[in-house]
Amino acid sequence: MLKLTVFSVKCCYLINITDLLTNISDSVSNNPQFVRLIRTRLNVSKIIFSSDRVTQLYHLTSLTVFSSITSLPDSIGQFTQLANLVICCNENLTSLPDSIGQLTKLTDLNISSNYSLTSLPDSIGQLTKLTDLNLSWNSSLTSLPVSLNNISTLEKLDCGGCDALTSPPYSVCKQGIKAVRRFLKDLQLERGQNQKLIPITVIGK
Predict the structure, then answer these.
(1) d(C-alpha 32, C-alpha 170), whole Å
(2) Cα separations (Å) of 88 from 52, 85, 117, 136?
(3) Would residue 197 be called left, alpha or beta, if left means φ above 0 and alpha means ψ between -120 and 50 degrees?
(4) Cis omega before residue 168 (within 30°)?
(5) Is CB count within 10 Å lower at the N or C end of the chain?
(6) Distances (CA, A) of 183 to 129, 169, 179, 189
(7) CA distances from 63 to 35, 80, 133 (A)
């Protein structure tokens, strides 16, 4: 079995080499210089997201999960040093865990080309340092959470190819982030007004 010792790795590309991946994970457990990890076409949910791996790789600032998962485990929320997260081309991924909202250092989030993804968790509104959100080509995505309006730092929102969107409509999304913000603000106000309407049932006279 091939063994590697990693001294100052900043970027690692791994394709279809499960044994090598496992050995690299072991070798970086005490290496603070290992700041970027890309795992391609592998069962990352069994390797990187197991409890011991999370502890070893807590210092990662950039992570790409590409073409390999059907679900993202709650333990993603333990990668609290992440500034850049890419979750793309996972054809059978239908949802994201609420724990993604714990990644409060994220500035760049790419959730693109996950063709079965239908919605985003409300907790995404907790990512208050986010500047760039790429949601392009999630062709089954039907709605964006109102909580997106909580991210005042958000400068770029890409919804290209998300033509199943109804809230806000895709036509609104194509007008840009300002139009999306206006729609979500109006929706939030409408929901607030509806919550204030308390139905009264009168029995008898």
Answers:
(1) 43
(2) 24, 10, 11, 10
(3) beta
(4) yes
(5) C
(6) 22, 9, 6, 10
(7) 9, 12, 15
